[in-house]
Each structure stands twice: as C-alpha cells, then as structure tokens.
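Reading a protein record of the kind used here takes only a little practice. The integers have meaning only within a learned vocabulary of local backbone shapes. With that in mind, consider the following protein and its fold in token form:
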Amino acid sequence: MSSCAILVVDDEEELRDLIRHVLERAGYSVACAANGLEASLLIARCQFDVVVTDMLMPDRDGLELITEIKAKHPALKIVAMSGGGQIGSDQYLSMAKGFGAHVLLRKPFAYQALLAAVDRARAGQS
C-alpha cells in the first residue's frame, strides 16, 4: 500500500484513538484533532490525503470544516461520519454530502467499513 496521511477529527477521545489505531494497523500515517478548529490548524501545516471527520463537535463542527476544506483544499478527500444527534445521522450525513463530503459513514461502524470508506475516498468514489 502506498503511504497515505489521514486526519481523524472527532471530539470523542476514545473513538478518535480507536480509529487511529485501526488505520495505523492498516498502514496509514494518522494525525488526530479533537474538533474542527484543531483540524483547520493541522490542515494548514500538514499535507493530508483524507480527512475523516465527525459532524457534531464543539469549536467548528463537521459542516463548517467540510466547507472550509472544499474552499481551501478542493483536492482533499473527505469521509463524513455521524452517530446522530437531535436530527439523526442520516440528515447530518445528507447535509455533509451536499457540502462536499466524498464518502459517508454512519456510527457505529465496523473496522472494515471504516477501511472501505477511506479506500473509496482515496479512489475518488462516493
């Protein structure tokens, strides 16, 4: 597998660490951010191939982050993930797709679904 840098953005530390572990075991280089603001700072300093972002976070949510990525880094691939919230995960993921996310991932998900989502994003598939 070719080297690929992935940024994982989620405010839930345990899930963020689990996703990082799964991706690193699959051979990816992974950085993490706890919210969209941290992610923006990392994206400005580092080169990433894929951003895997939660939708509901404090300090810049997933939709704001996706909007910023599409404006400043249009080639960067985005996997949007959501477990719901007040309006449900399908609505958040539908909005994420409209804002420019390439692949959608509903929480909770299996490791294989995560790896498949990242592979699809890298390949430019939705």
